[in-house]
Design goal:
Two copies of one chain form a homodimer. With 115 residues, chain A is an alpha+beta fold. Chain A has one domain (4-104): Arc Repressor Mutant, subunit A, CATH 1.10.10.10. Chain A is built from six helices and three strands; from the N terminus they run H-H-E-H-H-E-E-H-H. The first copy, chain A, has helices at residues 4-14, 17-28, 34-41, 45-57, 76-87, 90-104; strands spanning 32-33, 61-66, 69-74. In chain A, helix 1 (4-14) packs across helix 5 (76-87). At the A-B interface, helix 1, helix 2, helix 5 and helix 6 of A face helix 1, helix 2, helix 5 and helix 6 of B. Chain A binds a DNA duplex (30 and 30 nucleotides) through helix 4.
Chain lengths: 115, 115
DNA sequence: CATACATATTCCTCGTGAGGAATGCAATCC
DNA sequence: GGATTGCATTCCTCACGAGGAATATGTATG
């Protein structure tokens, strides 16, 4: 269900260092207001709001309104979508380990990985 | 050793749809020449070469020279770096499952997150 | 109600990076 | 050795997106 479409949104959104910084800041605490993110990131308020909008569009962050404050937090959905996109390439490095095993050991019978 | 620096390179490199397309094409076969990637991707040869250069700089692809052909293949290193970057956020969705557990059970005391 | 605060949005500018055409360079083939 | 193939690189242009300043929107506060 979590397909390439969402991974596209997420990877496009994360192709920007400041947005990754925002995600990492949000990783350190349960949630944070825009002002707190402005303070912590060194960016200016409009930039933070704009980046948060992009991250929200990729389901990487979610908002909770509280009076005039807006509390942002990480959204599992986007993160998992990207994680699974990369996981779909896992066979690449698993296959490489198999090849390494064959080279290192002189066991002519390398086991299959069973994920 | 696979740290934030490499994840930055990888995520920057993947913030571009055509580069992701090249990775996915390379995922389907062990390796491919530039000409084959040009054919399969619909992009023109210089664009493919340039994108492959960026992917190589992020350790996402590796090359094997063979006469006047260059065989590109996926490089596990960049893929793993990115996969691990996202894995560092795994606690986000794991914690969300925990919170769900608390809600489902009849604990009437929804605590604040205590970091 | 006026004012201050928190955030979102708009408008503008500018740099970066993607795409296209042409060229460079090395290796093969005749 | 000249021609051709396979790929990399250069130069140029152009669009997109990031950043800045100003403004809009909404909410508390006096």
């Amino acid at each position: 269900m979590v397909g390439a479409m969402e991974a596209t949104l997420v990877l496009d959104a994360l192709g920007e260092p400041n947005r990754r910084q925002l995600l990492e800041l949000l990783h350190g605490q349960p949630e944070a207001t825009v002002s707190e993110l402005v303070e912590a990131s060194g960016m200016r308020q409009p930039q933070v709001s704009k980046h948060l909008k992009v991250l929200g569009g990729a389901s990487l962050v979610a908002v909770r309104a509280d009076g005039r404050h807006r509390h942002y937090r990480l959204d599992e959905r986007g993160l998992r979508a990207a994680h699974e996109w990369f996981a779909s390439f896992e066979d690449v490095w698993l296959a490489r380990f198999d090849a390494l095993d064959e080279l290192v050991s002189n066991d002519p019978n390398p086991e299959e990985n069973s994920p």
